[in-house]
Amino acid sequence: MYAGVWLLLLLAAGTLGVPEDEESRRIYLQFNPGSSSSAVNLLHTRAVGNGSTIHYVWSSIGAPAVLLIYTETEHSQLRLNWTKLLSPDPSGAIAIEPADSVLYSTALAFTRIFEYNDVNNTANFSGAAERYFYPSYDLSNFVWENANNTLNSSSLSFHLTGVNATDPTGSFRNGSISFKVTAYDRHGRDASSPRLLHTANCTKLEFQMSGVQPRGNRSRFALEMFTLEEKSGRKKKRSVRSIDDEYTPTIFEVIELVPDAPNASHAQGYFQWKSVAYGSQNGTRSDSLPCVVHGLQDMNGTLPAPSIIQAFYGEQLGSRYNMVALNVSFGIADGDFYDKNKYLVWSALVGYGTPPRDSFSVLVICIMAVALGLPLVLLIMGTILVWYLKKTVFTNYQPIN
Ligand SMILES: *[C@@H]1O[C@H](CO)[C@@H](O)[C@H](O)[C@H]1NC(C)=O
Ligand SMILES: *[C@@H]1O[C@H](CO)[C@@H](O)[C@H](O)[C@H]1NC(C)=O
Ligand SMILES: *[C@@H]1O[C@H](CO)[C@@H](O)[C@H](O)[C@H]1NC(C)=O
Ligand SMILES: *[C@@H]1O[C@H](CO)[C@@H](O)[C@H](O)[C@H]1NC(C)=O
Ligand SMILES: *[C@@H]1O[C@H](CO)[C@@H](O)[C@H](O)[C@H]1NC(C)=O
Ligand SMILES: *[C@@H]1O[C@H](CO)[C@@H](O)[C@H](O)[C@H]1NC(C)=O
Ligand SMILES: *[C@@H]1O[C@H](CO)[C@@H](O)[C@H](O)[C@H]1NC(C)=O
Ligand SMILES: *[C@@H]1O[C@H](CO)[C@@H](O)[C@H](O)[C@H]1NC(C)=O
Ligand SMILES: *[C@@H]1O[C@H](CO)[C@@H](O)[C@H](O)[C@H]1NC(C)=O
Ligand SMILES: *[C@@H]1O[C@H](CO)[C@@H](O)[C@H](O)[C@H]1NC(C)=O
Ligand SMILES: *[C@@H]1O[C@H](CO)[C@@H](O)[C@H](O)[C@H]1NC(C)=O
Ligand SMILES: *[C@@H]1O[C@H](CO)[C@@H](O)[C@H](O)[C@H]1NC(C)=O
């Protein structure tokens, strides 16, 4: 038993350890700052910590997108020129003051949703032939609900919910797609699947398709997005094996998009998710849908549509930033189709600094400790038992005949 206890203590010290990240941030949420109109949605999250501020700007202007801007002061401010922002050339409409406090920035935009007919139930999105694809949904032409009504300052969340405006097939009559955003003021773990671990340096995004009528009963979906990084550091994909744990059983992979900038003098941004989505609201294991990332494809400096990304980075961003596109497809071969529950949810984190990492949970440590300690206990008990039996039973043994 001692071996087990020691192992438990060692693991507990090594992996749980002293939480190195007790950092917290004050979160301020604002809807359309400086504008009294609610015709468009722009949400500003300011996460103020000790000597730094992380600004997140979420918007459905153009394609839904987020800007992450890290400044090394608690007093940086977001400046918006609404006239310019809503004009065809929004370059320069979004800025941070003072400009030289900006140490790092990145952006992520969600551009299209692909739907294809998975005739043979192989969930092979990249291998599906062109003719099995339905016309894709272009998120930059969706109509978005007023997000001010969804803003909840106690749960630090809001959602951007939209429908296809020109909807000849009626797919969006009873449904919508939405991006639910939750900010965090401290370290913790989500209560809902896939139980993501988070810090005060990140924000959660849940992409949800709910009630949208698929155009076939074997429909599967994929989400297209793009992200950018300064020329000195191209975004790369990193697959991290996670421990099969009590929180998301059977899901072993965490994907991270991080800049490949070995010489960076400061921390950078990340985009992280577990390779799983859920096909029902309750997010149980039986409804889990593995997801696969495809890409990253170089966009050669071309922006698909004007958006807050152009508003912040300006028109010439192609010459200063590397832009890459990627798709995340949902579903598993021989699995249920979207049609079953007409529901899909996928969660990811956008953040700054070190991406959160799962370590062995207390439960797993206990199981391991027991697993390693038990044989020893059995061995000791067995020895004692044999000794005892020898002493008492066998010495009293009398042959029957
Ligand atoms: C957003 O909602 C708040 C409270 O519900 C309201 O005071 C504010 O005027 C709204 N903002 C806009 C731009 O509509
Ligand atoms: C803020 O950070 C500085 C330097 O990193 C540290 O010396 C100081 O104790 C911190 N203050 C608080 C309140 O955490
Ligand atoms: C906002 O942008 C418009 C159009 O580009 C410009 O005319 C105006 O001066 C700008 N306002 C401010 C306060 O910079
Ligand atoms: C589906 O499977 C059939 C039979 O195996 C095959 O002939 C057909 O090409 C497959 N279709 C697709 C789209 O893969
Ligand atoms: C997906 O389909 C493509 C083309 O048909 C094929 O090359 C590839 O091996 C398939 N991938 C998987 C995982 O089956
Ligand atoms: C809306 O859906 C139809 C098909 O139902 C598609 O042709 C059209 O492109 C969609 N519109 C947008 C903005 O995605
Ligand atoms: C805001 O979130 C809290 C905590 O999740 C919840 O209890 C409350 O009902 C929400 N308020 C609204 C108006 O949705
Ligand atoms: C929308 O819901 C109504 C009632 O639940 C149903 O009758 C109708 O068929 C649905 N329409 C679509 C396009 O799913
Ligand atoms: C899809 O619909 C067709 C025709 O209505 C039906 O024969 C088939 O069984 C359905 N497939 C699934 C997977 O529900
Ligand atoms: C989970 O959701 C599905 C469909 O939405 C439902 O049929 C099932 O009963 C739910 N399971 C639990 C445990 O709530
Ligand atoms: C970018 O250029 C490369 C090589 O010229 C090409 O293969 C790729 O398809 C282009 N990407 C886009 C998004 O146009
Ligand atoms: C959070 O950001 C701060 C900079 O303000 C950085 O020092 C810290 O390491 C980050 N924490 C994590 C967990 O990335």
From TrEMBL:
InterPro entries: NCU-G1
Keyword Glycoprotein: yes
Keywords noted in UniProt: Glycoprotein, Lysosome, Membrane, Signal, Transmembrane, Transmembrane helix
Membrane topology, as annotated: Single-pass type I membrane protein
Domain of life: Eukaryota
Any one of the GO CC terms: lysosomal membrane
N-terminal signal peptide: 1-17
Transmembrane residue ranges: 362-389
Cytoplasm found in the keyword field: no
Pfam families according to UniProt: NCU-G1 (PF15065)
Location of this chain's protein in the cell: Lysosome membrane
Family: Belongs to the GLMP family.
Entry-linked PANTHER family: GLYCOSYLATED LYSOSOMAL MEMBRANE PROTEIN
Quaternary organization: Interacts (via lumenal domain) with lysosomal protein MFSD1; the interaction starts while both proteins are still in the endoplasmic reticulum and is required for stabilization of MFSD1 in lysosomes but has no direct effect on its targeting to lysosomes or transporter activity.
Function: Required to protect lysosomal transporter MFSD1 from lysosomal proteolysis and for MFSD1 lysosomal localization.
Record protein name field: Lysosomal protein NCU-G1
Native organism: Eleutherodactylus coqui
Source lineage: Eukaryota, Metazoa, Chordata, Craniata, Vertebrata
